[in-house]
Amino acid sequence: MAPITDTIGFLRCDAARATRAFLDWQGGIQAKRGVTLVESRPQGDLGEVLQALLPLTSVERRRYLFVPTHSEWVTFWDNGHEGTDAFSAVSHLAEVLACDALRMTYVPEEGGGDRLPATVMEIFAPHKTDFLNILRAVSASFDGSKWAFSADGEVQPFEDVARYSERSIKKRFTGPLLETYLKALGIAAFDEGFYKTGEGSAVLLEKQGPIAPASRTFGLARG
Q: Please, what sign has the CA dihedral across residues 157, 160, 162, 164?
């Protein structure tokens, strides 16, 4: 389902609270341009639910999806043509809801097609930190010519910081290591069974009304 699944946002709260906070935040903003957000309940397994985000759009995101999990976390996705913009939504909602939040990105080096490989974890606090409300950020990414690694903020107890000294930059933060970190937080992001999609538990919010003139539609990526 890439690029939808390249990036996922997580909020440590229930889906109803997250959805309501998002509507309270975006509803007034969108109403000023004659756009309303309409709620629906997509059905099926995770892949079928994610298809409710199609088509993907550039310039302006038109659909937002909240999917609860078999844990205390709820996930956030949108229909951006290059993947979900989880940073804007979950960092803001973390403060509004006074809850922890997280953004993960994983694009593997093999099979990613034209998408640049990256492994990213950002943890957001419910309060301001030294930089916005980012508590911890670790990433290894390729910009098309070289790999770069960064680790900023408060080191978490589950981190294997010795890995960050690897000679190979891309090996400092890998998909398996990201998976280990997420599991330490109670998130089984790479396990489809972790996501709760039955009985209309997922919530789709779709914009109805004017759309940005330059917006284009896209399908899924092809690796």
A: negative
